[in-house]
Structures are given as structure tokens and as C-alpha cells.
Design goal:
alpha/beta, 10 strands, about 45% helix
Amino acid sequence: MATGKTFTALAALILIAGCGTTRSDIGSGMRSTGEAIATSAGDTSIALALQRDLSREFPRYFAEMASEVHEGRVLLVGTIRTPEDRVRASQIAWQVNGVGEVVNELQVAEEQSGMAFLKDSRISNQLRLRLLTAMDVSSRNYDFETVNSVVYILGVARDRGELEHVAELAATIAGVERVVSHALLADDPRRGTVAQRASVRR
């Protein structure tokens, strides 16, 4: 872990947010194997519906935007032209059945250049490798995206030490300008069960 001046620099670089637009506070606790499988299937269903709906509204969705879903929490990242479109993207995400929270990190900006996209891809690949090889970190508990050298993290950490360690793994990759972590702790009350999320209708 970082200490001294290195820690001070990292603290300025990393934002551990862990919050977003919340429809309601639901559920708590760790997952059993059955619940984990059901959660994964539910997240896949949400992700597919979200991609479908966003691509209809924004024809360049797959070129400029991305989304991650973890336990019913949706992370939107990428670039978008206007503040109104940014709000509209959140509205579309909320309309998808099973969504319990929307974290909108869309940047109002022009489309990324090819060089910026390649740089972001390199950062994401390096972080993916670091998570796969990190001791005491389960990479399947995290999803992330990189946009304009900013790394956005979604997922669940066992404790605050792991939460900070994962953010540090991202922050120390060459070229990363900032890390925004929306990962939750395992005992965070916002973590809901699949059954509770499924009861939320359009």
C-alpha cells in the first residue's frame, strides 16, 4: 500500500464515491451461491435491455458510451453532446426493469479521438490484468470503464482496505489522471437482493 508522499498524491487522485441516483434503499448482506447466480443473470438481463434502449435513443451509443451493471446498479460512462442528453440517458436507465441505482458519469464533451480511445483501452487492459493477479482480490466482484484517462469502478469490496487497494491499483497505472470508485462495501445496506429489485416495475 502507498505511504508518505505517495499516499498523499494518491489521495488527491482517487475519489471513492460509492453513491448515485438511488430509487430506494434496499437489502443487505452477503450472497449465497444461488443468489450470486441469480444476480448475475439479472444483471445480464438489465445490461442487454439498457444497451437496446440507449442505442435506440443515441445511435452512436456503441461508439461513444458504455455501461456496466453490478447487482442492479448501473454505471453510465462515455461522452455525450448536451446536459439534456445526459439527463435523458439517466431516465432511460431508470426505465429498465430491475434497476436499483443509476450512477451517471457521462462527460458532456466531443467524441473521443482515436488516440484517446487507444490510451483508455491500454489502461483498462492493465487494470484487468492487475485485478486478475492481485492477492486477496476477486476480479469478478468489479466492473470498470476508462474514459479520457479517468477510471470508473463499480462493484463490491469485502472491506475498506480492499476498496482502497483496488482504487490504488488503478491510480498507479501510467496515464491515469483520476480514479472514481463507486464500489460498495459488502455490508452496505444499498445492496439489494434480486427478488427485491425485481419487484420494482416501470
